């Protein structure tokens, strides 16, 4: 009976295996084979599950994920979720099959776990709601998949998370959601993160995680995030800020697939479903007044996709309705309908798009011939005609439209600015049109700055206080329209200078109040920002020199701080237009930076940095006509010579010195200004730019660049600058690019290494220490800085300078005695600097000095030497013994230094040849180092009591002893070797002295720089001699 059952089980398993084999080939056979396997299950319900699992075992050993295995898994999961005719034990089979899969999911074989989790996930996704499975089994499935979600194999984690996704929506399974939220930030695999994002249910907890995934490094994870946002979150459920953030990231996505997914979300879910295809309605969900750039991007994207359909009569002219009959030769009055901000942005972007397309098609038509040229010309004509129908009929209508919105008050300021920008598409070639527009612009330039009363009844300017209209974008729009209307050479400057002359009259007469000063300076700033040279300003109503001496310099000394700030800003713009900076301008900017209030100092810092980058620091100092003796010393990176805010004279300070003092000054009373920048942010960023552009203005200041770089590195690694996150981010980008741009930058970095380490290490060079924990943290930060600088020095150069470096690296016999041209920029130069620093310490060192020297040696052993640098190699071998003696107590570090010495000896082409003092001095002078090589020099072997430092074998020594003269023996009166040949045993005193000498020699750490020829053989002989003598002593 048992044999018959076994045979029947085998036949049933073979039938199932045959069905599974057939479904691998095509999905078309699945429906027919599903009926066959359902019939088999109905015929043998008791034996079917075991036979089915047995037939499925080969799949658990098949690792490849090809199409045939995927079809098999699809068929198996579909069958497991299917119920046949009445009497079919589908529920019982599903429970038994799931139990089998859970057992396989815990197997040691990774393929078995992967296939089990894959089939479980497919079954859960396909399982109908009417299938009855016990709650205990589901609990087992959930617990097993939660364990597999932490599997070491990414594919197992992927399908385990997919299996749990259906249960995450259930409030009873709160632990699953918590598991997802815990795993997502920590997951390293991009595909697993993608499944996690797709599995998250829509909720306030998961939303922030999904938004963060739009910045994921993995493309599929970012695409999944936008897919989830489109399918699980409605437009109304998102805040305005989040809507703008999603579109800003998605439409500017570097991956075309992710950008397409974001566009699909915006088009299908937001535009079509929520806004009925109306782009203006979509803009109303985005708050274009706050997120103007996002609104522009949305409309531009829709225009390029052809999704903006302009209806007949939908133009700007619908906002300009005739209000009365026009008299002959007179103007017609209009009734202006005020438009919303979204409408203004929409029409501005549409008109700009049509204008660009018309110019592009026109250029294409001019560059081609025949039918193609005709097609392009027709497209250009169509765009121009459409643009003409949209824009106001005349310039007068346009001016009236803008004026009415300006008069409507500050609530329509944004719309008015959009309409000003819209004027760039109008034609002002006609004289009458230019006259109308010119009068309109004159009114805009003469319009005073808006102000209001605060709680104390004081007048306060609305806006930034130094731009026309109190807003940078408004001033830029007025300037662009003015340059469009007055396009002739010098005409723009003439018109604005006439306005400046009128506004400056009360300022020169000292009858103007602070509001009139600000208005005048705003117009001056608009002119200086939009002109290219003082040549265009000569011969008009007011001369540039008069502007400087009658407006800007007096304004910088005004009692009102806003006037001072606006004047200092204009002084900076004025200096950028000068061929050479003037003395008065430079002195005033320095004075405002040092003695002015905090808000004025930061504006002066920006101006000084801009002028230093534009003209060069040397030119700025020459303009001062003072004794420019630097107050920065070679190794000093701290300044206390100048106190900010007092009346002390600062003219003897060079500009870079002054800015460096400001970088370390305590600006506690300084409030953040626009763009959330502090003065340390401004100074640090500006000094970093000067270092990046150092090759453009070489001069005396290049000798100080390593000190400026040291300051920036110290500021970057300082533990007390956590509030300067913006500056740290800026410096991180700077440090990434700085060493790769030029060899000079690497020279500067190598020279800055030691000043940085001295300034950061506690207890060195007068640095404060503190508690044990504080000292430990400071040492850790200093060592991190040293590794960071080492990485920058080892960074490869860009193509331009790397070619030169490779040429210098070519082997040249002459290099053995002379340093290469780029020694200062390479690792060899840094190694010499560190070795000299270590060797310069005395034998008796404090705890801080010991830790400092040890940290330097840890960096020293990481440096590599080129074979071509023979002179530096010989010098390094000469200094290394004295450097290693400074860390003799550190056994591990001493071993590393010995290995370094061996490496240097291996690449030394002639170890016997010694480096002359002149050659060594030449290398040290090139690195600007001073070091006494003769003091305790170990170039030659130190004298020992024996006649020679390396003794031969005993037999050879005895043979030589008979041949040597007595005078040779008398040359070493303290020798432990007997003066006469020793045939028998030696005295107890001589044996003890020899043993003590050998023990002392073993405990003294010494690295021999230069060994005699055949050193390896002599070392073996010496070792043999010592052994022989010890044996002879033992035999006595």
TrEMBL record:
One GO BP: mitotic chromosome condensation
PANTHER family per record: CONDENSIN COMPLEX SUBUNIT 3, CONDENSIN COMPLEX SUBUNIT 3-RELATED
InterPro entries (alphabetical): CND3, Cnd3_C
Protein name, entry field: Nuclear condensin complex subunit 3 C-terminal domain-containing protein
Keywords associated with the record: Cell cycle, Cell division, Chromosome, DNA condensation, Mitosis
Domain Nuclear condensin complex subunit 3 C-terminal: 519-865
Signal peptide: none
Pfam families registered for this protein in UniProt: Cnd3
Subcellular locations according to the entry: Chromosome
